[in-house]
Amino acid sequence: MDAKQAQDISTPEAFRKSVVDASSSQPTHDQKLAIVQAAADSFKATASNLSQLSGLPVPEASALSPIPALHQRLFNAEAMQNDQALEIEVLRTRTANALAQWYQNMVIGESQQWSEWESRLARVEQVLRRRATASRKEEMV
Questions:
Q1: What is the number of other CB atoms lying within 10 angstroms of the CB of residue 76?
Q2: Phi/psi at 20 (5° precision)
Q3: Residues contacting 8, CB < 8 A, separation 6+
């Protein structure tokens, strides 16, 4: 088996290079007929849909006149939505900053205060134990 045959076996047909003759660039009569027959049903469906549309009445012009005003209302609503999105972003940032400040001051600050009180209490307890031990020693003497 040569390299060309090995490539033909390992490469799917969709990825193979096809050799096109200049004479075969135009579809044959049978190919054209097959294409038209395959699409015939869609032609019928499209014609049916178009004929249904032709039976619809044209709306009055007065019914269509509010449409440009709706466009301006939609534009205004979009602008308001963008303004609200910016305001929400500012509020989220302010909330995050306030929360961080509260956490720093209240949670961490209080924790540090409790830690300081604990260390003071431990020192006082240590002094009291020393005094108690000293007084017991004096009583024994």
A1: 10
A2: -110, 125
A3: 16
pLDDT tens digit at each of 141 positions of the chain: 555 555 555 555 655 555 555 556 788 899 988 888 888 888 888 888 888 888 888 888 888 888 887 888 999 999 999 999 999 999 999 999 999 999 998 889 898 999 999 999 999 999 999 999 999 988 887
Element (H, E) at 94: helix 67-102
Which tokens in the block code for residue 58?
A: 């044209």
3-state secondary structure of 43: helix
Report DSSP letters for 32-87, one per residue: HHHHHHHHHHHHHHHHHHHHHHHTSPPPPHHHHTTHHHHHHHHHHHHHHHHHHHHH
